[in-house]
Design brief:
homodimer; mainly alpha; disordered N terminus; DNA-binding; disordered C terminus; 2 strands
Chain lengths: ~130, ~130
DNA sequence: GAATAGCGCTATTAAAAAGATAGCAAAACA
DNA sequence: TGTTTTGCTATCTTTTTAATAGCGCTATTC
């Protein structure tokens, strides 16, 4: 490995990240997915189609392309997302598996919504705008 | 339910969040879990035991208690985490279900690690700066 | 073949979030 | 009563994200 200066680290299993020095896969994953828009980007790519960066930006409601670019780079380095031939982005095989792994989340979220909604939601609802 | 502070938004299904105005459960969940340390905190609570905030801070390697306090408050408001009688924090029933929903993530991470490790890492190390 | 439009991406500045230390009040313990 | 532990706040610095503008490139259209 040439890795001249490790000023910026690739978020990959085996590499130390903010969350952990160990490089444990799960810790690296939690770090990577815990960054802004990372989960959402995967979610918007869930259909498997190639999406342009602009489309992603629009669907995710991201105003600034900078964060999107950064996140996409990280996800590409992590082999979760790839550039498509002819432009755009799509999930890698690895990315599709990841998406399957977090698929139960949507189901949970629905249960969560109904459970939380069943409770004393009134003490929260009016604080919104 | 005096609602002392109406300026802060509770992250709950039904409420608009950064990611989405719709309040769709999955979007709210992605927003909440996409915040720094949120996933990791859940992960450290996965055994179901009551953990003190200091223990959590230590295990998560969080240097600043501020973020931890903020995240724990959000998770409590979302009914995912609760304060334990006699101090400390633990998962709610909802939180335990959430953890089950993202449990496949650990398994995926291990596969991911072996897959990524199998490939040519050199093509990434030099692109960094 | 100039004009147009969409693409990926960078530049810049402001705002927000997180990192890092220190320390306090209350409870638990001795 | 003195000591420890705990949850949390205060303060300040650093990092990350937000918000706009716009560049160079490619493809299409007139």
């Amino acid at each position: 490995m040439t890795l001249s200066k490790s000023t910026k680290k690739v978020i990959q299993p085996g590499n130390a990240v903010r969350n952990s020095q160990s490089g444990q896969p799960i810790m690296v994953a939690l770090d990577l997915l815990g960054r802004r828009w990372a989960l959402r980007i995967l979610w918007e790519l869930r259909h498997g189609d190639t999406m342009t960066s602009r489309q992603l930006q629009k669907d995710c409601d991201i105003s600034s392309p900078n964060v999107l670019t950064t996140r996409l780079r990280e996800l590409r380095e992590a082999k979760i997302v790839a550039k498509a031939d002819g432009g755009g982005y799509l999930l890698t095989a690895e990315g599709k598996q990841l998406l399957q792994a977090i698929a139960p989340l949507a189901e949970w979220a629905d249960r969560w919504a109904s459970d939380v909604g069943r409770e004393d939601l009134t003490c929260y609802s009016k604080s919104q705008k």
